[in-house]
Amino acid sequence: MKNITWLTIIYIWLVSFNTEEKESTCYGTTKNGRLENGVKLPVSGKNFISYSNATELESRTYVHSIVKKVVIESYAELNKVNPKKLFKYAETGFKNGGKFSPHKTHQNGLSIDFMVPVLDKNNKPTYFLTVAENQYGYDVDFNEQGENENLKIDFESLGAHIVALHKASLNNNIELWRIIFAPDLQDELYDTKYGNYIKSNIKIPTKKSWVRHDEHFHVDFKIKCKPLKRGKGS
Q: Dihedrals φ, ψ of 191, to 5°?
């Protein structure tokens, strides 16, 4: 019996390992797509946390396996540069992709929202609350200087994060296609030491989006995806 028990344990471990490591496959586009073998982002790390660890929201934090690698590598690099800085990611998508209300994209594992890094009244890195009462952070507002009553956007850390994501994308042979961030706050971002790099390498549209994107920035990656067959991902 002991041998059977250990063989069973080893088998389960191998199956779990292979499932975790299996590469994802994306179909269609971020606006009309689906995902196979989506992987979940970790709830936390040395310098980052998820916007929620509630069970119903954890189902909304799946991405393409390569995107997961990019995100983890970028956080690791940020921790090397300044381990005191704190970061929080938000919604990504479902394990199998598809429509992801209220978002217009996030359908094939290549989209992810990151909450902006912030400083408290004492200029110390902190997280702003992401709870049901403020729509898990999506209802937090900042003025045109990137401030509100309690917090201010840490634009230097924001710039560092964007650059780290771009470089990690290149390291994994994919593209960081675009970032959506509030047009009225972009000058503050470009005034950081990362501004010239971002302007030269990353597409950030100046046209207003359907939501302001001041409390978070949206990232779309580009990977060669398979065509979406009729009837799939709708």
A: -80, -5
